[in-house]
Write a structure and sequence with these properties.
seven-stranded mixed beta sheet; alpha/beta; 7 helices; 232 residues; two-stranded antiparallel ribbon
Length: 232
């Protein structure tokens, strides 16, 4: 019988990554976060540099670095002012953190069907799931492909719902001349080891809404801050 050899491991960590990590380690500062009403509440130099780069590339006002995309999903859903029992329509065909973030925030994940071309939410199924308890739609862009974001955005607007994106598996994917992650109120990116951009763990949430960004930053830091001067 023919014996096939396994594919050799592909190492995505090269000289640039090693040099960057060494530079950060030699600086003596990793995250730079300090709980308090000061600039350190937003992280140190390297965190801010990463966030600024995301803002530049995706042309958004805010990028919030997080320790995992799971944390990012939870922080993002929390920023949507979910109340206990509120329903959020999402995909059943995704990593479980998409749905569990809704549960963690006190909401109820409602699964709509997916379409057969790119495995994103089927807009017809989404619209059938909407009722008076529905508060938002959490779309998933999976396998490097976009969900039908333009149609989903129109549905969200029609029913006065928010639309957010789990963009963990589709960084820099293009949908109708726009990046995925820029259609909803906010979107999550993942740096998990098997993602397109990987650092072992980590993630980023992007948004153009200043209030959403501030809420995500507060959730990210457990609310450990002197918040009297924070306007949310």
């Amino acid at each position: 019988p023919q014996i096939t050899k396994p594919f050799p491991k592909y190492n995505t960590i090269g000289k640039d990554e090693i040099n960057s990590v060494n530079q950060i380690l030699k600086s003596g500062e990793l995250s730079g976060f300090v709980a308090g009403n000061s600039s350190a509440f937003y992280g140190g130099k390297w965190v801010k540099n990463l966030e600024a780069e995301f803002c530049k590339v995706y042309k958004v006002k805010h990028a919030i670095a997080v320790n995992s995309a799971t944390s990012g999903l939870y922080s993002m859903v929390m920023s949507m002012n979910i109340e206990p029992g509120d329903e959020v329509i999402t995909s059943p065909y995704t990593m479980h953190a998409t749905a569990s973030s809704i549960l963690q925030a006190g909401g109820v994940p409602i699964f709509a069907d997916i379409e057969s071309d790119y495995y994103g939410l089927d807009p017809l199924s989404v619209e059938r799931k909407i009722n008076k308890r529905t508060k938002g739609i959490l779309a998933v862009n999976i396998f490097g492909h976009a969900a039908k974001l333009e149609v989903l955005k129109k549905i969200a607007k029609k029913y006065n719902l928010w639309l957010c994106e789990d963009n963990s598996q589709a960084p820099s994917a293009i949908y109708r001349n726009r990046f995925t992650g820029t259609y909803g109120e906010a979107a999550v990116f993942s740096f998990n080891r098997h993602k397109t951009m990987q650092s072992g763990e980590g993630g980023v949430v992007i948004t153009n809404n200043s209030k959403i960004a501030k809420k995500i930053q507060l959730v990210r830091n457990h609310g450990e801050a002197v918040v009297s001067d924070f306007k949310v």
